[in-house]
Amino acid sequence: MKKDSLTNIADEIKTDKGALRWPHHGYTFTYEMLFQHLRDKPISVLELGLAKTSQDYRGRSELRTKAVSPSVEMWQRYFPKSHVTGFDLSDFSSQESERFSFIKGDLGKASDYDVIISLNRKFEIIVDDGSHASFHQMLAFSKLFPLLNDGGFYIIEDLISQPKTIEEAKPTSHTMALLFREFLRLGYFPETSPIIQEEFNQFLGQINNVLLIPYHNLNGGNDQLCILHKKEGTRFHHYRTKIRFFRSLPALNEMQSLELQTSIDAENPYSYYWLSLLMLENKDLEKAWEYACVAAQNSPYDLEIAALQGKVLIAQGRNNNAVDFAISKMTNEVSLEVVGLQLAQDFITAQSFDSAILLLEKILKFKSDLSHGIFLLGKCYESKKSFEKSLSLYMKAIEILPSKLIYLKAYSRVSRFLNNKDAILFAEQFKDYYDNKSGYHVMMAMLYFHFKEFDFALQEAEFAKNDPVQIEWVEKFRNKVIKAKSLL
Ligand SMILES: C[S@@+](CC[C@H](N)C(=O)[O-])C[C@H]1O[C@@H](n2cnc3c(N)ncnc32)[C@H](O)[C@@H]1O
After folding, report:
1. Which atom belonging to ligand 1 lies closest to the Cα atom of 60?
2. Is the pTM higher than 0.85?
């Protein structure tokens, strides 16, 4: 008998992971390809966020007493020998059975994950379809990745549909999507918040690969899916680990580079991406360009690879070509950010401010309210010492996205040239933008720290401590302040 496809099951049960129920994400088409080989295996699945409808984010669903989860039913039908564990703010315990266990908890509370951890269960698939707030996604990943079996999949759905109120309160400067995009580009997780950076980077050696899929759902909307594949023990030889090793050497000699080239995985377009990046670091610009072009040929629509091509052009000093190249790639909002803003940043790093301004003006013509573009333009003018102009650009960026700490920090930095205390007064105005006031206190603590007003910094950090999510951060911050004070 022919088995039902995952999408058919999803549509029959009415989860939005399928093709019929609004907003028709269609993720099941991808899942079907990834999970077919597991179908008749006795696997364990963990899903965060189980609701019946997609309208009850942020805990309003707590009001429901008896909830039924369509996605749990979907996994159980698709994997008939599976066991599903579910986690949600709402109570789904009435659905518990031999093949389904439920845990009630809040994705934003670090201690609520302890119950899942205490189950001592390993999962083949973990799906985060909870609040979709970046910080919740990050906390969940840092707590739950160790529970994923070797070779397992960690999936984060709806990376773009971030609930504004929780987002603005987040104590990090990156979204989850950006964090993984940076991971793909750099091979490690860059600064986000002190907690996240350390915890995520611990997992580096265990990540086989990450796919970030821009999902234009069948409803015409934009979203993004992150699929992370955990390494299968040591037998899975990963080129990235190898390249990181080479990169850590003081100088890359002929021998090593040859060794690296022969060991590269030819079928993976990202091998050439990394090889090109390595050559770029080694200042072999001809080779860097050659490899970036091979990567682009293998994977013509990959925006990360396009951004690398632009980076090489900038390193070669072909600034006009790089601007034209970036413009030719900027066809939608995602490419505007991945290629456009990235190359503008690269121009800034290379201190080519005029080219950066030229590119940023083009970007802002496409999308005039792109706060990060406005911020980068402010940075260019700041570097050119046009402080008044840069201050007004920073102000504009803040008005669009008031919770972005780096914008406030930039504003405060520049306003020091004009009037020191302005920055703190200015930042105080934004208290109301924070639903969760701990985010505000974190921002103020960092601002006071910036101005070396250490006692106020500590006081603000203490306020932030009321939020359990911040406790760890506050501890680390306090040590940082004490150290800075002792150096005075
Ligand atoms: C998009 S729905 C899940 C849909 C379901 N997985 C499906 O495919 O049919 C999101 C769920 O996340 C839950 N949720 C929202 N915020 C949460 C939080 N902070 N902690 C735990 N669960 C949360 C909501 O109660 C809701 O049940």
Report:
1. 25
2. no
Q: How many CB atoms lie within 10 A of CB 212?
A: 23
Q: Is 108 in the pocket of ligand 1 (CB under 6 A)?
A: yes
Integer Cα distance of 273 and 295 in angstroms:
6
Does the beta carbon of 269 sit less than 6 angstroms from any atom of ligand 1? no
**Partners of 156 in the beta sheet?**
128, 226
Ligand 1 atom with minimal separation from the 14 CA = 9
Mean pLDDT of the chain: 81
Q: Is the CB–ligand 1 distance for residue 51 below 6 Å? A: yes
Which of helix, strand or coil describes residue 87? strand
- For residues 215 and 202, the answer to whether their CB atoms sit within 8 Å is no
Query: How far apart are alpha carbons 87 and 366 in whole angstroms?
Result: 41
Q: Give distance in angstroms: CA of 132 to centre of ligand 1.
A: 8
Question: What residue type is 322 in one-letter code?
Answer: A
Contact call for residues 404 and 371 (beta carbons, < 8 A): yes
Would 118 be classed as within a structural domain? yes
Could you count the other beta carbons within 10 Å of the beta carbon of residue 164?
Answer: 11
Return the axis-axis angle of helices 353-366 and 371-383, rounded to nearest 10°: 160
| Ligand 1 pocket member 28 (CB < 6 A) | no
- Number of domains present in the structure of the chain: 1
Range of the domain at 155: 6-230
Note whether residue 247 is domain-resident: no
- For ligand 1, whether the C-beta of 182 sits within 6 Å is no
Report the Cα 412 to chain-centroid distance in Å: 26
If you measure from the C-alpha of residue 156 to the centroid of ligand 1, how many angstroms do you get, rounded to a whole number? 12
276-280-282-288 Cα dihedral, nearest 10 degrees: 50
How far apart, in whole angstroms, are the C-alpha atoms of residue 398 and residue 419?
18
CA-closest residue to ligand 1 atom 17? 131
Q: How far is the CA of 49 from the centre of ligand 1 (A)?
A: 3
pLDDT tens, residue by residue, 31-58: 988 888 899 999 999 999 997 544 433 4
Report the alpha-carbon distance of residue 73 to residue 215 in Å, rounded.
Answer: 24
Q: Measured from the CB, is residue 86 less than 6 Å from ligand 1? A: no
CATH code for the domain in which residue 187 is found: 3.40.50.150
Alpha-carbon dihedral 207, 334, 373, 394, rounded to 10 degrees? -70
Q: Hey, which of 88, 143, 158 would you mutate to test ligand 1's pocket, going by the most ligand atoms within 8 Å of its Cβ?
A: 88
Would 452 be classed as within a structural domain?
no
Q: Is residue 172 included in any domain, yes or no?
A: yes
- The model's pLDDT over 449-482, given as tens digits with 9 standing for 90+, comes to 878 889 999 999 998 887 777 788 899 999 999 9
